Amino acid sequence: ATTLGRISIGCDILHASPQSITVMAQVDGPKVRIMESQVDFGLMRMGDCGERFVTVKNVCDVQALYTVSLRDVDTGEVVGESMQMTPTKGHLDSGHTLSIKVKFTPTEPQRTRLVLVLEVESGETQYVSMRAEVVYAHVCLSESTIDLGTIFLAVPVTRRIKLRNLTLLPSTKYRWDCAAVTELKKPNSAHFTVEVERVSRGSQDDTRFDASGTHAPLSGFEGALGPDEEVTVRIKIEAHDVGVAEGIQTRRPEQLGSAANPGILAALLPLDVDGMPVPGGLELRAKVMGLAVTYHVGSLARLEPVPDEIKGTPAALTVGVRTDWPPHLLGPDVDAPIVLDFGHRKALEKQSMTFVIRNHTGIPSSYTLNFEEFGVPAHEMIVGEIQALQAQLSATNGAERHGTANSSRGR
Fold first, then answer.
1. Could you give the CA distance from residue 267 to residue 189 in angstroms, rounded to a whole number?
2. How far apart, in whole angstroms, are the C-alpha atoms of residue 221 and residue 380?
3. What is the pTM of this model?
4. What is the mean pLDDT of the chain?
5. Region of residue 314 (left: phi > 0; alpha: psi -120 to 50; beta: else)
6. Distance CA 273, CA 140 (A)
7. What is the DSSP letter of 255?
8. What is the pLDDT of residue 411?
9. How many Å apart are CA 102 and CA 132, to the nearest integer?
10. Is 129 a residue whose pLDDT tops 90?
């Protein structure tokens, strides 16, 4: 502040009348200046903490005693719950500069408008405006539920979804919470493996994780979204069993894992986003079926369809299998063998028969064909040897008779 000083000085003059001199002076108090015109925290994510520095300089020749406070723009009341300053008071020597640290920790989404007040003892008060925009992070998924329909054991199924940042926050971090997959799986759900992979546009930001319904997960997939950014994520799911029968599944006559009574895959895959009050995530659904392979002797046109109630179960393996075998084709411990019965054929004549193996599911299945006890039964061998011997004797006798006849005509 400026002070007007005035003083009168008396002067005695020899051999003259006394005189008075008035001295006047304008005295200025300490001068301190704030170097910033505005302090802007910008757009902030709820839960983040921002820091800014306010520079104060003593531009006079005397020491300044100062205090700093924050006031609401509208009410003028002193505030300071979410915004702290260090230091708030002290001495500033002539020509020196001081940095005041302002730390802002918002407690709710808000539009903050404050004034920093710098009061100097016997000097002028300085002001600077402070502002911030605080919002919640908001990331959305293109779909909240992935229904895979019917899937098969050990056959991976892939789907794609999109993540989008609905705010202008510069960097919004997210993480797929793979550790919670096991906890958020229904008790009767099939055990499964989830693999999440970000589909990158040629960058090096591809990361993936494995989350298992039976074992401890590996690492979580983490990333960050820029302002209004959208990314594509590939999700691959593979079932390892058909789960456990529960409720109505236990009352159905069909075996669990068949087309008429499929197993259930049901779980949640959480998505945690920094600064978003409610976690996101995906609901995973699927019906799980087992392997169904049938075999058939004959032609493709004679394939017998597998009923829905036994598809995907071991019972399906009996469909199309002949059971009315002749007794002489059955071994002592075999009820219904697979026999390629060519019937009675002529010797040295090539014959063929079609043996059809059909996989009714999407599950890759290896197979091995073994021909057991291939050959002629012992009793048939004896009969054959007798017949061959008889044919040989007949041929020998015929040759002898033919030779005797020729000799008679020669004589």
1. 8
2. 70
3. 0.63
4. 79
5. alpha
6. 10
7. P
8. 43
9. 12
10. yes
For tokens 């079926």, the residue is 289
* Residues 170, 193: Cα–Cα separation, whole Å: 33
Radius of gyration, CA atoms only, the chain: 48
Let me know how long the chain is. Answer: 411
Instruction: Give the integer Cα–Cα distance in Å for 364 and 343.
Output: 34
Cα three-residue angle 80-86-88, rounded to 5 degrees: 70
In this predicted structure, which of 257-261, 272-276, 334-338, 375-379 has the lowest mean pLDDT? 334-338
Note whether 179 and 170 are within 8 A (CB): no
For residue 263, give both structure tokens.
Answer: 């197993």
Residue with tokens 């405006």: 129
- Taking alpha carbons only, the member of 77, 71, 75, 84 closest to residue 118 is 71
Token code pair at residue 255: 């075996």
* Residues 227-250: tens digit of each pLDDT: 999 999 899 999 988 888 887 777
For the stretch 283-314, pLDDT in tens is 999 999 887 777 666 666 767 777 777 776 65
Distance CA 98, CA 85 (A): 13
